[in-house]
Amino acid sequence: MIKCPHCSGELDFDIKDQVVKCPYCDSEFNPKEEIGKVKSASERKATEYDTGVTKGKCYTCSQCGAQLVTFDDTAVTFCSYCDSQALIASEMDVLNPKLIIPFKKTKDEAIDMYLKKIKGSLFAPNNFKNDIILKKFRGIFMPYEIYDIESHDQFLCDGERYSHRSGDYIIYDKFLISGQVDAKYDGISFDVSSGYGDDVSQAIPFDIKEGEEFNHNYLIGNYADTSDIDSKIYDDNATSMVKTDLENTIRSNPKLYGYSISNVKTSSDIKEKKKGFFPVYFASFRNKKGDRIHYAIINGQNGKSAVDIPVDYKKYLFSSLLLAVPIFFILQSFATITAQEIAIASLIILLVGFIIQAIDIKKINDKENHVNDEGFNFKNLSQVDIQNPEAIKEKIATSIEKKKESNNTPKKIKGFGLYIFLTALIPGFLLLIRNYNDDLYYGSAIFSLVVCLFIFRFVVKKHNTFIARSLPQLNKRGGDENE
Amino acid sequence: MNRFKYLILVLCLFITTEVHAYGEVVNNTDETVTSTAKANSSTSTTSTPSTSRSTTSRSTRSTSRSSYSYGESSSVSVGSKSTTIQIKEVEGTSYKLFIDDKKELLTSSEEELLFSDMEKLAPYGNIGFLSISSDAGSETTIATNFYVSNFGETNGVIFMINMQTRQLTIRAFSTQASVDLISSNKVDSILANVYRYASKGDYYTCAKNVFNQCYTVITGESIFEPMKIASNAILAFSISSFILYIYVLSSSSIKKASNKEIMNGINRNVDIKDIMIRPNGTRRVYSPQSSSSSGGGGGHSGGGGGGFHSSGGSHGF
Fold first, then answer.
1. Which residues of B91-109 are buried (b: 16+ CB within 10 A; e: fewer)?
2. Topology of B2-226+308-316 in CATH?
3. What pLDDT does residue B12 have?
4. For a Cys staple, A339 with which of A309, A438, A461, B196, CB 3.0–4.6 Å?
């Protein structure tokens, strides 16, 4: 992308020293200054393609003339033949980024953070530590929308404070509280790439204060994606965040100690929005069946990680057996549970198991249907008026509500409520008829608890399946492009 | 899915009701008997049945209760000093062995054999066997009142078979505060081991095993509790699986950063000033003060023998 002005070698960005270096002649350059001409991929005779699964453009590598296949959201890529970095100028012009947070963590440090995360997860499969996966990590700059929001207005709220007791009544004094807010929030950001899930981007926040004015030099050596969704869909999220913070600040004001604050009214305006690039290390790898894909994303600035970690069922089972030993001795020492009591205990465990699996299945369904991923839902809307943010929000909300209500959604995972209910009938019936035979109670309790264990097994299996993400994600750099 | 949730809720409410009813009858809690048995005027041993109440045979608990009162005409005067009791004194101890087989569950020879089985327990208290047919109160009350009315507040163990309610009951009495002769947990285990004999009608073997296992427990040995081991094992594994399942759910999901974390990463400048607080009326909330306890100091009348208490449990057959 940028050649060394001294020896024409490919430049590299040194993360530790935060300078641009030439590995051939050891020259160092300030990334904030112009080093050389940025050479883009040739867009002459660029052709478009659409496979039905992915679509994008084909360019020509400015170094070796080979064909560069890119996807719709690609801003910077690498040539598969000569490995030189290629900037897609047209995409960059559309994005027009103003700010960039440089990589502060090296790839090795990112891998260490990933391994720390895996080791900290009790039941992570051992193959998640394999070198094959570690080699998949790539540095990518993700596009973000950065909001500058201000509030210079009066606030109003209701306040209440304990006054005194009068007989059987407690008297509270009510107040109308007002004041002036002068607030500036610069840097609230949301990712504007549909393939980069909201659940991931909101888990690894960045520190905007370390951002620099955008310069292509910071992109050296890494991929970059461009935006494929309109940032207007996040306007309400940004102002909502400011509103919440202002409310908390008002509540915690020393002058209002002792008051119970409610009904806070504030106002804020979006003063400016700009695009920026934030650094992540990204790896993706398929599950055993090959039909779903796990993400591992490390924040390139602070090392925070977000990884789709499944559960190794053998480890889970072994750990359960291990933990059962001290619990068993505690029960032996301190409790004698009668037959009826264990039947009741099994019913309670069935009930709690039902609640837990219902919650988990709902989470799986929500994730599978991208219920809370506004970026994804925007991308998959048809006929949307980009200039009308209200229409966009309404359409997304309707789409999400339809998904929640639909019982025929192909991706709706069914829970185990029916099996749990049928199992609970047995000990329930015995308790109802007040049978005296302990063996029946023990038998029903054992049966119930075994069913519960099977249900845990199935839910863990489904959890493992859907912790990964559905394809296609082939366009995400991070290892699978050569598989 | 909503229908199943509703059904589970109904089931839970029902179970709660049943558990409550169950808990009323199978009383495994220790009781402190602070007064001696109430004086009674009736020593009737008529065979007229007690006031009829619905009961189910072979059930673990009775379905109805009446308030217990001495002197009530019933088939068994359990609150009174028994006139059918056989008492045997044992050399070297002031305690006695007793058998009051009102329902004639044991033959004469079995009674003799049972006395010899009970003998080894004699150093520890008054040891006895009682068979009745009554639903005049809970098993605990019946057994305790019988024992206390005949032997006072002394150490002892009574094994009672109630043919009316089909309940086996063991009560152990101790004069030492906080020290059980036999704990309720062990009583549960003993009854779980022996109830099958009673179910088959072999009451002698049932009683024999009761006293043998009581002796084992009192002398500090262990009794075989197979179902306790099995049920605790299954329960322990279920609890551990459940705990780790909760851990899996909480640790494997990707957690959204908090608002505070996000705010720490931006340029934030907030100034709240010119705060004005204006009164805007009052709000009253009804919150009655707790009434002073009427008649306070309730509970147990002083009674004598501080520390005398009983432990035990019941089991259906």
1. eeeebbbbbbbbbebbeee
2. Diaminopimelate Epimerase; Chain A, domain 1 (3.10.310)
3. 53
4. A438
